[in-house]
Design goal:
mainly alpha; two-stranded antiparallel ribbon; 8 strands; 5% strand
């Protein structure tokens, strides 16, 4: 089944792959993305700004891990510094024109936490000096002289922890419900703090795709500095167990299925966010998801999402095109494999590709 993942990639990007005979992927990435983002404002308040920067910062991390080229870390540092300047001395960024600040902040924080993890687990990189001029040599809030990658990682860690702690204080319900999608009101906080959700007004849990970025961030931070972030490890374990409580073994093909909420099956798009938690947890804390569980997640793609008989892709983790929220663009139709009709669909499918290593 591992070959199936490679076939899907080829089918989705056949023309693109052929173009790479003239323009290798790395150079194409640089030509397309860097000019666009080089002079982007950090003061936008739209949803696109939040989601876009979370994705681009993650892509810099992915490109560094794929190529070992520190130029991608330099770009990451340049833009992360600008994004953090916008936050100023606040625990969080200014409000956006949407009610999903918890979700979008998590997507923005996650690659920052991974950068800290990468640098602090690589002594050579940690002690390597930065190329001059990427960012100022002295930063504030907190005050930090910046000579190398390790210095910036330490400065960034303080600011990321500040944001994580704020959302843990304001959005965490209990170990049973984990995070709320909105800050808890005083009455909700009193209810949660007294562990009395069964008889008073605790809020509902956020959808799992809202929560996984925070779990991943805490996994990276606690792994980079275990003695300082024991509470993060505890919360990440709680979130991992919460996710496990949502998944079910699908009869007949050794896969996993789960629901976005009580009304809708999990769609491919949100599912691609969800599975990042087992991927990172298995890599960073090997005991959180064992190889058998990882194999079941891989089967969710190869047996359910991919329709091997009709050579198409279904829009939810059950392998059907029904009972999926109409709010999700992918749920209105099947996902054409060539991307000619629904250009968004194939990109969402690619978030599942890291599962190939866990397939049979």
């Amino acid at each position: 089944m591992k070959a199936l993942f490679l076939i899907i990639i080829f089918c989705l990007f056949g023309e693109f792959v052929r173009a790479q005979q003239l323009h290798p992927f790395k150079e194409t990435y640089d030509q397309v993305l860097e000019p666009y983002y080089a002079n982007t404002s950090y003061n936008d308040t739209t949803v696109r700004w939040w989601v876009g920067w979370g994705s681009i910062l993650q892509s810099y991390i992915n490109m560094y891990e794929a190529t070992g080229d520190k130029a991608y870390l330099n770009r990451f540092i340049k833009h992360t510094y600008g994004i953090q300047l916008r936050k100023g001395t606040n625990e969080k960024w200014p409000a956006i024109d949407d009610d999903q600040q918890f979700n979008y902040t998590g997507l923005l924080i996650r690659p920052m936490a991974e950068f800290i993890y990468i640098v602090k687990n690589d002594p050579n990189l940690y002690n390597t000096n930065l190329f001059p001029g990427i960012i100022p040599s002295v930063l504030s809030n907190p005050h930090q002289t910046i000579l190398g990658y390790g210095d910036f990682a330490n400065w960034l860690e303080t600011r990321v922890v500040e944001t994580v702690d704020y959302f843990n204080d304001e959005y965490w319900i209990t170990s049973e419900f984990c995070y709320s999608p909105m800050p808890l009101s005083p009455s909700e906080r009193n209810c949660a703090d007294n562990n009395n959700c069964s008889s008073c007004n605790c809020p509902q849990s956020a959808a799992i795709n809202f929560q996984v970025s925070w779990a991943i961030s805490m996994l990276f931070l606690s792994s980079a500095n275990p003695s300082s972030y024991y509470e993060y490890t505890t919360k990440a374990i709680t979130l991992t167990n919460y996710f496990k409580s949502l998944i079910s073994a699908y009869p007949g093909n050794e896969s996993y299925t789960w629901w976005h909420n009580p009304a809708f099956r999990e769609d491919v798009s949100h599912g691609g966010i969800d599975i990042q938690l087992p991927i990172v947890a298995h890599s960073v804390y090997n005991g959180f998801f064992d190889p058998y569980e990882m194999n079941r997640f891989a089967h969710t793609f190869t047996f359910n999402i991919w329709d091997r008989y009709n050579l198409t892709l279904h829009n939810n983790v059950f392998g059907t095109d029904i009972d999926c929220s109409d709010d999700q663009f992918l749920c209105s139709k099947q996902i054409p494999i060539n991307g000619n009709v629904n250009y968004f669909g194939p990109g969402e499918i690619l978030t599942w590709m890291p599962m190939y290593k866990y397939d049979d």
